[in-house]
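---------- Forwarded message ----------

FYI, see the Lycopene cyclase record below. Original note from H. follows.
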Amino acid sequence: MRDADVVVIGGGAAGLSLARRLTGPRTRSRRPLTVALVDAPPGELRAAPRTWCFWEAPGGEYDAVVRAHWGRLRITGRDGRTVVGNPGPLRYKMIRSPDFERWAGAELDRAGCLRHEAVVESVRDVPGGAEVRGHDARGASVRLLARWVFDSRPPGRPGPARTTLLQHFRGWFVRTARPAFDPGVADLMDFRTPQPRHGLAFGYVLPLGRHEALVEYTEFSGAVLDDDAYDRALGHYAAEVLGLGDLEVTAVEQGVIAMTDARFPRRTGRSVFPVGVAGGATRPATGYSFAATQRHTRAIAAALARGRTPLVPAPHGARSLAMDAVLLRALDTGRVDGADLFTGLFEKVPAQRLLRFLDGRTTALEDVAVGLRTPVRPMLRTALELPFLPRRPAGPRPVPARRPAGP
């Protein structure tokens, strides 16, 4: 006997989004689906608080938990020149994971979603569905049977790839003594940071008010830094580049995102499907995943509502992934200068079109037009060599040091 029609593993953006779409009045199948959500008990296996950003027009389904949004986006080159774009009607939106988890959790509770706290040890196909096994915080065994299982746990390492870079970062939520920020402008990339020998680095500033902001230091490179190196880079950026003066660090966040042209599986069993980062929701060239996760979970819910096998299109299209593979290889080989490339794109491409391009929502002709605004010769050379490069196994997925929510 099944415990639920669907088991969703993981209580992050992907797991909560999918469970929410499958429960309550949003399900249009002949009978409501029973959904069980399994999340790790509080402790080391729970993800630390984090920030998700995406862009869309006002009036989105998650506006109730959007912490802040911006109508203007700024890029600053290494020489200090700035490009400010208005992507209207799109807005750049920020959600904090604790806010999202509380809101989505309350909706799931009202809809009667079954909630379990357990460390999942195995997921396997069984006759008529799939089995999830694990143990709870007291060590007691947990076993759940379902027709379908959706697993949002991040993979241990990316699959074989021609290129794998890491987007790794640390951010400070700061409060300044003087009014230092413009709440209407988000700094997506500020390249006035020391650049690593291999890769690129930039600052990232999301103002939450005149005195408050999330200030991050980000690198695209092959290896993560230690805590002291991140803090030195952030201290330099806050003091020497931004000139923030006296400030208080009220919270810290840190993360590592694999930027890879590895292939992600669409299913891992007859009845088992990866979702979220595990399902390839992260855009390889940008590290953004929230919007793609929403598209993917929406398509899964629609398939189940029609009584179909939930094998839906991948979160990103083949053309987007092919372009990202070229860019990653060009950055990794040093054929293009990342800071100049991204600054030039924001100078030459209208902000709204560029955001649609980064979200995989442009036409083939628009993609070509954007491509012509990049260094064409090295990008073309890279595109021609990619089909002949072997895919090699990646190393273990680097895990950033855990940091408390406070400074």
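H. also flagged this: Confidence is low (pLDDT under 50) at residues 399-407.
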